[in-house]
Amino acid sequence: MEIRFAQLQCSSSSVTMKIDDWLIESQQSWGVFSTEGDVGEMLGQLLTQPDDDKALVYSGQITGADPSQVAFVSLQQQQQLLENILAQDDSESLGYTDPKSTVFRVIFDQCHDNNLTHQLLQQLDLTHLSQSSFSQLSTGEGRRVMLARALATQAPFLVLDEPYAGLDVEHRSTLTMYLEQLSRTLQMLVVVSREEDMPQWIEHVALFSQGKFDSVMSKEQWVNHPVIHQLTAQSGQQSEELLALIRRHRHSAKFADPVFELHNGRVAYSDKVIFSGVNWRIDNGVHWQVKGPNGCGKSTLLGLIFGDHPQCYSNDIDIFGKKRGSGETIWEIKQHIGMVSSALHMQYRVNCSAIDVIVSGFYDSIGLYQKPTQQQVAIATEWLAMLHMGHLAKTAFKQLEYGQQRLLLIARAIVKQPTLLILDEPYQGLDYLGRRLIKNSLELIAKEQLTQLLYVSHYQQDSLDSIEHFIEFVVDDAHQGYRAVVSGPTIK
Ligand SMILES: Nc1ncnc2c1ncn2[C@@H]1O[C@H](COP(=O)(O)OP(=O)(O)OP(=O)(O)O)[C@@H](O)[C@H]1O
């Protein structure tokens, strides 16, 4: 497919994209790097929207694109599919898996071909999950299903927006090889916001800056391009400003040790054990990173702390000086915890404005149901300005790009200065600058002990210097599922 964008200008309610002239020749695959602004979602939507239903209005021209021959994968698409499935599927409450929402069916429905479905399940390491419900998958498992689903359409042109987000180290490396193989027969646009995610085999790179098509270059030129150094310096300064804001409103509560303790923790579902024999103690002021492959139970473990996992009452847990299940309310626990995760992002389906999302952090609510104080609104306004979203204060959360939504949820978690800040893959969907800004800020927050971090990320590059304690899930050969290994300077 030969596609040309000419004098293109396109705006959604929160993002604008401009391309003066960009030619994607037939057989060419491109890497797209965007420093600021979610162009991947917009490119994908433009190339897949049918002529008779142009949800995204634009001026200028897109020639040569055939929407029926393009498949698109993004975090927003995954969120959308999940929402659709949850809206139709009430099987969870009835205690069984709806056959229409199994991993197998979600892929099969795109091709109606048994062999192809099984082949894709196997290639994307999903065979063991084929009868699981899509809505119960872990983040990384869900991302692989989305890719399989796009490939099942057998479209010759693929738009992959952040295909590596949420994948563990091993699956990222297999995906790299897999995409390289596919690139011999398919055309691809691979949109990334991490320089290390730009696939080796890509020959052409398009650089976007603040939503504007900036330049094209060869892979060699990209590797030596000064943009990354410029961005690093810029984000460092912004993080200092963000920290100053957090310091000014400092007020987190302190508890006696341990802040949290899990004794012989175990989570299992009818068909499988996720982990067992987990002993973990979190003392005051100690930051932790939770590690392990996709599906090992990292989010599940954090859900036991946060209190939204159904099996938190069947486990022996002490939190903030109380035994779980001893009459405390979930709100008493939650008021000391800030949380960012894909599950929370999914739950945040109410349609309040951007500023209300941040303010809702003071009340631990999804949506805002109380009249905030002037001070709370002032703090939230400062946060919006810091995140370059001041102009979007009144925009509805649902109308924002996935990355913008994620930034708001991070601000929502930090704003009340919780004792524990739980960050489960916080950077998912953020552009380069957004990620640097948040990572630098977390580093400073941890160093100054402004709050205590529990942190999950699959990228070595995301490690925070201030985190020296790790809990890592490893396969338990003796039993089913995983066990946890804890390490750090104070662990004997
Ligand atoms: N209701 C359920 N029934 C069966 N299995 C479930 C259910 N809910 C979750 N799981 C499984 O529990 C496992 C652990 O999920 P979890 O989200 O904790 O993994 P994770 O380590 O955070 O993974 P990732 O790195 O992909 O985010 C996954 O394999 C998931 O499919």
Automatic annotation (TrEMBL):
One annotated GO molecular function: ATP binding
Kindly state which keywords UniProt assigns to this record, in alphabetical order. ATP-binding, Nucleotide-binding, Transport
- Record keywords: ATP-binding included? yes
Q: Which residues form the ABC transporter domain?
A: 3-235, 260-487
Name the SMART domains on file: AAA (SM00382)
What InterPro entries has UniProt attached to this entry? AAA+_ATPase, ABC_transporter-like_ATP-bd, ECF_ABC_transporter_ATP-bd, P-loop_NTPase
Q: Which PROSITE patterns does the entry mention?
A: ABC_TRANSPORTER_2
The record's listing under Pfam families reads:
ABC_tran
**Record carries keyword Transport:** yes
Q: What is this protein called?
A: ATP-binding cassette domain-containing protein
* Species whose genome carries this gene: Shewanella metallivivens
Q: What is the lineage of its organism?
A: Bacteria, Pseudomonadati, Pseudomonadota, Gammaproteobacteria, Alteromonadales
